[in-house]
Backbone:
């Protein structure tokens, strides 16, 4: 088989990139070692937002661009087909939190400067918006009304289906083994466990496995040890359905007291996580430790949602670890690999929010043989190892 472009990795970034490449008329193949959306895409909180990305305006605007494309896709295909849930998000903080309250107010100030839609709400509004949650009397919140959450595996599968409808091919249970290229570094194809595939372009979207995949494909071991990215595990608890109650109506981040974040899950239950819980686990964590951390999160949820059963549902919960790629400076790594022609890489945190932005922009780079201006701040060349 021969393609104009092959995507290595069938997560949300890879499938969305393939969709936009196929829309440009390219013949596209997706090579996925497992099944579509089964890796980190299947274990992510999936809050689509630029709300939390205020440390750098360029990166904020890239995330806001991704969010805006989801709106366009919803108009075109419908929220249900995409797995898109337009809930809005609440960043809850208490006025008595001497460190947290000023930090969230500063976040709001920066978002206002970026012209990002939000409102500041008080305790009365909070209790109306989330009637099942018990808030302190001094609770307030940054309300990001345009922030949805996503059933990320459903979205990835939908993108893959669209690629096939546009004449592309999806190869699951297929591992990329070796990049084929000329002596001058011009890509000509890919060797996989399902045979040789011809291609003028290969886009690696392997998430946290990107360094190892690049090392395997190119035969250069330095990628595995020196690539400017680290692996960050994230832990999530998904409860069984709580219906007929809808205990949480928005994406809710509670930063004062016992920090945690919670939202509704596609199965009708709750999806719960916290930053400190992420620090309590490792990629290969024992089931006993996962259970202990899960119990802590369920207790936190029960403390603020009295109607929820809490740890009593632990045996019916899904405990998931998603290993996220985190570039050294916290911003995306996107673009051609220096020294090659036709080999591209996308590695990023916030992959759910950024998938449509990076996917559409990398499609421009591949099809037009020129990096879009919006991607130039995120090129690999900003790191010494690639300059």
Residues:
């Amino acid at each position: 088989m021969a393609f104009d472009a092959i995507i290595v990795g069938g997560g949300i970034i890879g499938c969305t990139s393939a969709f936009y490449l196929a829309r440009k008329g390219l013949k596209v193949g997706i090579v996925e070692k497992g099944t579509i959306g089964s890796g980190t895409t299947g274990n992510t909180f999936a809050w689509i937002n630029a709300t939390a990305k205020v440390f750098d305006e360029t990166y904020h605007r890239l995330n806001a661009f991704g969010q805006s494309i989801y709106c366009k896709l919803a108009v075109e295909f419908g929220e249900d087909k995409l797995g898109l849930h337009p809930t809005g998000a609440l960043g809850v903080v208490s006025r008595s939190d001497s460190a947290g309250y000023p930090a969230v107010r500063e976040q709001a100030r920066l978002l206002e400067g970026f012209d990002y839609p939000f409102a500041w709400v008080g305790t009365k509004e909070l209790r109306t918006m989330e009637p099942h949650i018990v808030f302190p009397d001094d609770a307030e919140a940054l309300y990001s009304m345009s922030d949805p959450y996503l059933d990320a595996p459903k979205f990835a599968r939908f993108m893959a289906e669209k690629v096939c409808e546009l004449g592309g091919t999806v190869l699951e249970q297929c591992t990329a083994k070796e990049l084929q290229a000329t002596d001058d570094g011009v890509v000509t194809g890919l060797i996989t466990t399902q045979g040789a595939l011809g291609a003028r372009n290969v886009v690696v979207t392997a998430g946290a496995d990107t360094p190892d995949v690049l090392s395997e494909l190119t035969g250069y071991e330095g990628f595995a040890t020196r690539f400017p990215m680290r692996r960050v595990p994230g832990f999530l608890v998904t409860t069984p359905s709580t219906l007929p109650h809808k205990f949480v109506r928005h994406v809710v981040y509670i930063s004062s007291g016992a920090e945690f974040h919670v939202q509704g899950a596609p199965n009708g239950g709750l999806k719960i996580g916290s930053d400190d819980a992420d620090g309590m686990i490792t990629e290969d964590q024992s089931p006993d430790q996962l259970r202990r951390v899960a119990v802590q999160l369920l207790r936190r949820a029960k403390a603020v949602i009295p109607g929820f059963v809490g740890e009593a549902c632990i045996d019916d919960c899904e405990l998931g670890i998603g290993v996220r790629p985190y570039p050294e400076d916290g911003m995306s790594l996107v673009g051609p690999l220096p020294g090659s022609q036709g080999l591209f890489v996308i590695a990023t945190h916030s992959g759910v929010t950024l998938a449509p932005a990076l996917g559409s922009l990398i499609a421009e780079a591949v099809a037009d043989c020129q990096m879009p201006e919006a991607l130039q701040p995120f090129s690999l060349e900003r790191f010494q190892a690639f300059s």
